[in-house]
From TrEMBL:
Any coiled-coil regions, as ranges: 43-75
Highest taxon in the source lineage: Eukaryota
Keywords for the protein's UniProt record, in alphabetical order: Coiled coil, Metal-binding, Repeat, Zinc, Zinc-finger
UniProt protein name: C2H2-type domain-containing protein
One GO process term, biological-process aspect: regulation of gene expression
Pfam families the UniProt entry points to: zf-C2H2
SUPFAM superfamilies recorded: beta-beta-alpha zinc fingers
Protein source organism: Hucho hucho (huchen)
GO MF annotation, one: zinc ion binding
SMART domains, sorted: ZnF_C2H2
Biased amino acid composition, Polar residues: 178-195
Length: 514
DNA sequence: CTGGGGAAGGGGCCC
DNA sequence: CGGGCCCCTTCCCCA
């Protein structure tokens, strides 16, 4: 009774849970033990079978070796033949010594044959080794199945990690051959660009490397790689698909978009009767005239390291990754690393406009260079409450990567922390310059990226802005739509006219003195 | 002074 | 109505 009462006393919810847990554990243990016993039985049986087979094999090989030895001895005694002939007779399939390399031996020889070779009393082959017989057998099978060339390629691929990756992914061998045949022609250039966009990893590597890398990249992204799908690239206004985690440069996206943009066509029409200027966004590392030097350096240096996490593929120009931050407090440190309060980023939440949201924690965690090198981060404060968890005390420290132009731009624009900060909701992460709308900051970021999507086919000039290209067209067309009302002077630039008119008004002289 | 490129601001249109 | 995008305008700078 005392025991019972004690038990009754112990039957608290905790004790019940404990009892149940113990029962469950016991049951699980029992199941595990049963299964384990079964498995162990099977394993022991398999091991027994293995041993038996191995023994049988050894015996058979021993028997064959003895027979061979006896025959060899007999023939030696009778005709003193060469060992090669002996081998030929015995095997009937001599394949030449060239294949009997150590590597092949090790490649095909079953590990279990070591014991057999150790026991092998036969040394008749004189150099080839008895184990080579097995090698030859297996090689012959391989050779007949795939051919010598295939075998050679395989051995090469085994040395090349890229090849091995292709093998793993089942990639056609064609992929590895593409780079070797690429010529610096337009098609290859386009393709190279496409690859580049993927990873800034491959960004401005040689086309060969780029291609190879891209192929692998695509293979690794099968099924989810919408970037390589031209139809999925952005077109039109809403053409920039959100591609979180994408690794392709937006330049492609830009290519698709701008080429098909009716607005650009209008621009060309209004700009003149010439349609010579294409709005292609091809990034030709070779032909890229001027501004891309910056991009080249950046890409070579550091961009490629963070591209995958930073770039929103297809969205460099149109839509960079956006950090949506509520009530951001911005502190600018010239050389300090960028840090971002992780709580500020609505991770996993798409932007209300389908924009990519950069997981800054991940980027920073995987690559510290992200913060210091990415010109693509746009910091945006928003009043949206649906953006995910965030506290209202964001603290962002930017790292400035400023070249001379950036400095100038900053001087002009005043940066995010100066001027009409209320209006400038969008910040360039590279120079902290604030912009009133996202489009402007996206255009601005071409300053850092060096992306010039608009190219003139007549002189191969490239421009980051379509309007500048249009104005540039007047160089070729000779159109000077701006004429001075006070003199005969005509100008292609509106501001040139305005500047000229200062001459008439006398405003210019004072400005010059100042 | 002029020619021309780079860059930013902003308006208008469209969805 | 708001946001996004296109395009024009404006300004700066350099050769």
């Amino acid at each position: 009774m005392t025991n019972l009462s004690a038990k009754k006393y112990m039957l608290t919810p905790a004790s019940i849970m404990e009892v149940l847990a113990n029962a469950a554990v016991a049951e699980i243990c029992k199941l595990v033990d049963d299964d384990y016993a079964v498995f162990r039985l099977e394993i022991t049986q398999s091991q027994k079978e293995n041993r038996a087979l191995r023994r049988k094999l050894q015996l058979q090989e021993l028997k064959m070796a003895r027979e061979r030895a006896e025959r060899t001895m007999r023939e030696r005694v009778l005709t003193s033949p060469s060992s090669v002939k002996i081998l030929d007779r015995n095997r009937g399939m001599e394949r030449g010594e060239g294949h009997l390399t150590g590597g092949h031996r090790s490649f095909v020889k079953p590990a279990g044959h070591n014991t057999w070779r150790d026991d092998q009393p036969i040394t008749v082959d004189e150099g080839s080794g008895t184990s080579n017989q097995h090698v030859i057998m297996i090689e012959s099978v391989d050779a007949e199945a795939a051919g010598p060339r295939v075998k050679q390629e395989r051995s090469e691929r085994e040395e090349d990690p890229r090849h091995s990756r292709e093998i793993q992914t089942g990639a056609p061998h064609v992929a590895t051959e593409v780079p070797t045949t690429t010529a610096p022609g337009p098609p290859s250039t386009r393709r190279s660009i496409t690859e580049v966009s993927g990873p800034p990893n491959a960004f401005l590597k040689s086309e060969t490397d780029t291609e190879t890398l891209t192929v692998t990249h695509r293979l690794l992204h099968t099924g989810s790689d919408h970037r390589s799908d031209p139809e999925r690239l952005g077109r039109g206004r809403l053409g920039c698909p959100s591609a979180p985690g994408s690794e392709y440069l937006p330049i492609f996206h830009q290519t698709q978009r701008t080429v098909n943009s009716p607005g650009d066509g209008d621009t060309l029409d209004t700009g003149g009767d010439d349609l010579s200027c294409s709005y292609t966004t091809e990034m030709d590392p070779v032909n890229m005239p001027l501004g891309l030097e910056t991009q080249t350096d950046l890409s070579r240096g550091v961009w490629n390291q963070y591209s995958s996490s930073v770039y929103s593929e297809g969205c460099l120009d149109k839509k960079g990754p956006v950090i949506v931050v509520e009530e951001v407090t911005v502190n600018v440190e010239d050389d300090g690393p960028l840090t971002l309060n992780a709580d500020k980023t609505p991770l996993g939440e798409g932007h209300s406009q389908g924009r990519d949201v950069l997981d800054y924690r991940e980027s920073l965690g995987t690559n510290p260079n992200v913060a210091t090198q990415s010109p693509l981060h746009i910091l945006r404060d928003t009043v949206s409450t649906s953006m995910g968890p965030s506290d209202s005390h964001g603290h962002v420290v930017f790292h400035q990567v400023l070249n001379s132009k950036d400095q100038r731009a900053k001087a002009q624009g005043g940066g995010a922390t100066s001027g009409s900060s209320k209006e400038k909701r969008f910040l360039c992460m590279s120079c902290n310059k604030g912009f009133s709308c996202l489009q402007n900051v996206e255009t601005h970021q071409r300053v850092h990226t060096g992306v010039k999507p608009f190219s003139c086919t007549q002189c191969h000039m490239r421009f980051a802005q379509a309007g500048n290209l249009k104005i540039h067209q007047r160089v070729h067309t000779g159109v000077k739509p701006f004429s001075c009302t006070l003199c005969h002077m005509r100008y292609s630039h509106s501001y040139s006219l305005k500047r000229h008119q200062r001459v008439h008004t006398g405003e210019n002289s004072t400005a010059a003195v100042m």
